[in-house]
Amino acid sequence: MATTSCDVAIVGAGLGGCFLALLLGRRGQRVVVIEQGPSIPSAGADFLKPPGLRVLARHGLADFVGRHGLRRDLIRYYHDGDPIQECRFPDGGFLIRPYQELVELIYTCCAMEGVEFCFDASIDDITMGEDRVEELALSNGQRLRAGVVIGADGTKSAVRRALAIEQRTMPYERLLMRVATVPLTASIAQLNRLYFSSEGWLAYFYPINAEQARVFVGLPPEDDKEIFQDGIPALLDELKKFVTDSSDAFDSLQPAAWQRIKVSSLRVEAYHKGNAALLGSAAFACHPMTGMGMSYTLHDAEILADVICAAGGDDELLDRLLSARYEPRREAHRALIDYGDALAATFRDRDAYLAAFRADLHIYGDAAAPAAWAAPR
Ligand SMILES: Cc1cc2nc3c(=O)[nH]c(=O)nc-3n(C[C@H](O)[C@H](O)[C@H](O)COP(=O)(O)OP(=O)(O)OC[C@H]3O[C@@H](n4cnc5c(N)ncnc54)[C@H](O)[C@@H]3O)c2cc1C
What we know:
Blueprint: E1 3-11, H1 15-26, E2 31-34, E3 47-48, H2 50-58, H3 62-66, E4 70-72, E5 74-79, E6 82-88, E7 94-96, H4 99-112, E8 116-118, E9 123-128, E10 133-138, E11 143-151, H5 158-162, E12 167-171, E13 176-183, H6 186-190, E14 192-196, E15 202-207, E16 212-219, H7 221-229, H8 233-242, H9 250-253, E17 259-261, E18 264-268, E19 272-273, E20 276-278, H10 293-311, H11 315-326, H12 329-346, H13 350-356, H14 359-364
Parallel strand pairs: 1-2, 1-11, 2-8, 5-14, 11-20
Antiparallel strand pairs: 3-7, 4-7, 5-6, 9-10, 10-11, 12-18, 13-16, 13-17, 14-15, 15-16, 19-20
Helix pairs in contact: 1-4, 1-10, 2-10, 10-11, 12-13
The structure holds flavin-adenine dinucleotide (FAD).
Domain FAD-binding: 6-320
GO molecular function: 3-(3-hydroxyphenyl)propionate hydroxylase activity; FAD binding
Protein name: NAD(P)-binding protein
């Protein structure tokens, strides 16, 4: 098969890859997105927080994406059954929209900008020159030469491997996560409730649309076999110990299909090498309790789009701009990962959790809060 060329090749059609493709396509870049799956991926993310909504607003997408999503402005936290704090989100709150739906909306916008998508095509080989990616060999036989290559290909990134960038993955070993989609109940429709127990359990109840809700359960790994593999009745006995204001959901939990989710943090030593850069979960992963991964990824894509366009095909300038404007994002990501680690390490202990909880990071991440905002407690 012939070798084709483009300005930017993006590996991975998740939120980061699709959003960057859209921004670049709008600015006249020839973009090819390579996705190993048959369609846009699904993932556990449901919440888009204020910083991410503001990125979308800057690009005229906030109304389009928010139109059929749910808006929420309050999360109530409980410890051993008692409410311990509320987190109130000002300025329209946050958006609940299942990940695949959100990314599909951005994907449909890409089509209008001439972005080319290759589904069912993964990376077979990456030819490296001196500190730069020369060519990508795809599993469908195609060969692709690109001025810039973006690894938006998730935590196991093939691009990161080819660049020989070191990474450190830390599984949250003390907290095994399960999720189920269940019918919406009155208590879940009322507000988002997140329960913690001093025995190392958590349970999070929230709606995803007018009929359905999501329930996340986190538990010590040693409890998982008994609860989820030898029959579900023990689940309710455990939840009844610390879930107080969501008991109307209990009946729907038993027949639900409980999907197991692996959660790890990921830190990498550099975000670019020559003409290639990492984006989204290929670059960093934090505990989902922060609810911020997508917001940071959207902002990172904005920076990458600016840098790529400013470099205008000049490799040396691209390298310099990535060093100056993109690499510093590692510092913001590090703070977010540390924050997620602190939440995961303390939630069993009420006082330690409250001391670790940072409303500013939780609501605004590293973006500046509006001046009128006062920290909720
Ligand atoms: C349980 C859970 C809950 C979360 N909840 C939230 C939340 O509520 N709010 C929030 O902001 N963030 C949340 N996050 C984080 C959020 O999911 C990530 O920040 C976001 O998905 C990053 O998007 P991405 O584009 O990097 O990658 P991904 O969505 O991981 O997409 C990577 C894509 O690359 C493709 N790919 C991989 N390898 C190859 C290859 N070799 N060739 C071609 N394609 C390839 C994959 O198929 C996939 O489509 C959560 C994360 C988890 C684990």
